[in-house]
Each structure stands twice: as structure tokens, then as C-alpha cells.
Amino acid sequence: MAEPPQKKVRKTQRFLDRYRERWPCLQMSRLPHHAFCTVCKTDVDISHQGATDCRRHVEGTKHKKLESAIASVPKITTKFFGDQDLRTIRAETLFSNFIAEHNVPVSIADHAGPLFKKMFPDSQIAQQYGCARTKTAAILNTLSSNDEQVISDLMCRSPFSIATDGSTDMDDVKLYPLVVRVYDPSVGKIVVVLLKIVECRESTGEGIYNLIDQELNKRKIPWGNCVSFSADNASVMQGLRKGVAAFIKSQNPHIYMVGCACHLMHLAAEKASRSLCIDIEDMLILIYYYLDKSSKRKALLRDLQILCDTDVRKILKLSSTRWLALGKCVNRLLQQWEPLTLFFAEEAAGKKAAKPLTSSAHPSLKSPAAPKPSTLTPTSGKLAVSKTLSSSFLKTKVHQRKSKTGPSSTHQQTGPTPKRQQTGLTTKQLPAGPSTPRLQTGPTTKQLPAGPSTPRLQTGPTTKQLPAGPSTPQQSAQPPKGFDLNQFIFKQKEMGKKQRDLSKKKTEKEKKIEKTEVTK
């Protein structure tokens, strides 16, 4: 029996890449031996003739009708973003960049749109402007990412230097801004830009280096392009073993380490100021507090500033934790030097006139004459200012000590004096006659007859009184020779510390006694 003839195996066609190049509307389908039409949104069977099936579908009436319908539909970009809309978007982008450039709060964008509409009522761009704080923040985020990419490309192609420093706040997380100095060919000069502000929880040399290294590796910036690294002079940054400089040197030993020029200038100026006869910082502090709590002194200084034709400015307060403020304070002091010298000269003259040598013991003494106006030079003015401040400072310190320790044994607390009780002592009154000095002999007190007044004589410890004569000006209270104001302040601080330590010890002893009583 003869075997039946075998049927020929039918070869099926598959989708080829050249079909996509010839007909862009056809794509590879998920089904085998099919092509997907993006216009008709259907799968076309091409297993029989392949390319012929594709051509037949594209030339069909159904495909042509759908293709013409899609072509007549306007694009979404032309529907929502016309030429006028693009101009408005450009205006919004420029204003957002203006806010970032001039460090203006983003909340100002809420008021910019209504203001532009009132300012430019004839402008279509102003009428369509609608960029508040939310949209402005989104635009700024996009602009910042674009700028970071441009800076990264410049650092990859050309040499650069980097600088950083930690924030001065007392939080656990500190901020480290990475500032880059690089040449920008589009501008034609070297620019200084902010690359990134990173957070650091571990403010050690290795921790800070890891932050910088991660940012450079993220942008694929090689350490070989880094020319110099700038930071402050702390051991964390410039340490040769565990500082940031040591870890950077391991990556590129040719990097030049630059310390903070401001710190170096401050140290040089501080050592140079030691050659002066006064302490600059103490003088600034004393002048500020001498004027701060008195509106009368401020008014007098303001009048003298107007008289000397200088700008009416306040005396700045020196902050010990911010050494950069010292330069501003010194400049302000030099600007106001002439009215200040006149002010303290007036203060010194007022103190001399306020305390004349007139008392019950010397009723014949007259008030001192007015002091002669003295011409002040810069050197004499400094000495007068320092002497006036030191004397006023001593008086306030002594007053504080007396208020803390209480009244002395000789000066009791003020109050109504009690009446003396009558004892067996008798007081004999003599007949009237010429007055004679009283003699205190024992418990009795004899009153002599009236007569020409003569000075009283006391048998006890006497105080010698000079005879009346021409009035002499009283000398102003000044510190003794060899007086050191800094040493006096230091001793006062030490005494305050000792008193606080004693009070702490007393409180601790009292607490221990209370505990023992409670346990008993």
C-alpha cells in the first residue's frame, strides 16, 4: 500500500524591522506573526505574505479614513500653548529667576501677579500672568537642577577649587555648603557658584570628607581636576592626620590647602592691638553700656553728632562670639570719635560741677569755678574717655559690692531714729552770756551763755577742719596711679566665682542635713 503524499510545510512570516522603517505606523505586536497599527489600534495578520499584507493594510480605505481624521485634530501644544502663552511662560521664568538671584522671599510671588495686571493693563502677558508661590517654587527647582548640571559639566572639563565651612548653629545636624570656583567659557571669566548644601551629622574630618567625595562621585567629577581646597584653620579641616586635608591629599597629593584669610587677618590684628595702651574690646563694651541704659545720654550724644556734622548713628554692641563684628564696631567708633570725645568731656565737666567743696563744716567755701574748655586731640581724647569710663565703672562696682554685702557696721540701715530714754544723767543750763565752745566732760553737758559764735571743740576723736579761704575746684574722682582696669575686672570675676562656690557648698550641706532628718 502506497503512503499518502506528505503535505508541504507552510512557512509563516514574522514582523521585521524594515517594515517599521517603511511604514512608521506599524509596530511589533504581542501576537506572533502579526503587526500592530498605531492608527487603527488593531493587530494585522502578516503570516501569509508579510510585506504585502502590511502594504495592503496601509493602502486600505479604513486606514486612510482614520489617518485623515487624526491629521485634522489639532495638537495639544497648539491648543494650550500658543505664541502668547510661551511669552507668558518666559515672563514667569524670568521673574522666578529674579527672586532667586536677589534672595527675595518666594511669598512675594502671591502679590506680583495682581500688581503686574494693575501696572500694565494694556499688556496681554501681564493679564495672563499667574505665577504664585507654588508655581514659582516648582520653576526654581527645575532651574536649580539645570544649573547644577551645567556646573558639573564645567568641573569635569576644567580645573576648579572647592571651599566649605560648617554652620554655626548648635543643632545636631550641621550644614556644609560646597562653594566652587571655576572658569566659565560662556561668560569669559572665573565664577564662584554654590554647588550643593549638604547635611552632616558627624562633624569629623572623615565625615566631612565623605560628604564632599560622595557629591563629586555622584556627578562623576575627578579629584584630579581639583586645584585647591579652602577651609578654616581648625584641626578638623587642616589636620595632617585626621583632618579633611589629609583625606583629600590621599586622593590628589598636589592639591593646595588654603586657610581662612579672615581668621589669619583677625589673629594678626589682635596681636597688633596688644601694643596699644588700652584694651579695645573693653573700651567698646564700656562705651556701649554707658550709653545704652540712659536716654538722656543718648540725646546729648545725638546733639553733639549734629553739632559735629557727623551721621547720627548708634554705637554698636560688641559680640564676643562673633569676631567679625569687632571690625564694624571699631569703624563706627572711629566715625563717631569727635562727638564721643566732646560727650565724655561734657560728662567729666558735669561731674566736677556737681560735687563742690561746700558743707556744713565749711560754709564759707564757694562753689568751684567752671572748668576751662580743653581742646582734645585723638590721644588725649582716648585717655579722657578711658579715665571717665574707669572711674564710673569703679563706682558701679563698689555700689554693687555694698548692695550685696549689706550696710556696714558704721552705717546702719535707714529708718526713724528711736527716742533716747531718759536716764539719771542731768543737763544743767547756765545763765545766758557770751557763747563759748561746748566742753563734753563726762555724762553731763553744760550749755554756756550766749555770745559771739565760736567753733565747737570736741574732746573725743576730732576731725581737723581747714580754715575758710578762697574756693578751690574739687578734683574729679579718678583711679589711683598704677590702677589696671583689666586686673580689677578679673579680680571681681574671681570674687564672684568664690561667692557662688560658697553658696553652692552651703546649699549642698543643707540638702544633706534635710536628707538625714527625713531618714531619721
Automatic annotation (TrEMBL):
Biased composition (Low complexity): 359-374
Feature: compositional bias, Polar residues: 405-429, 437-447, 455-478
Annotated InterPro entries: RNaseH-like_sf (IPR012337)
Location of the region described as Disordered in the Swiss-Prot/TrEMBL record: 355-381, 394-520
Superkingdom to which the source organism belongs: Eukaryota
Basic and acidic residues: bias regions: 491-520
Name of the protein described by the UniProt record: DUF4371 domain-containing protein
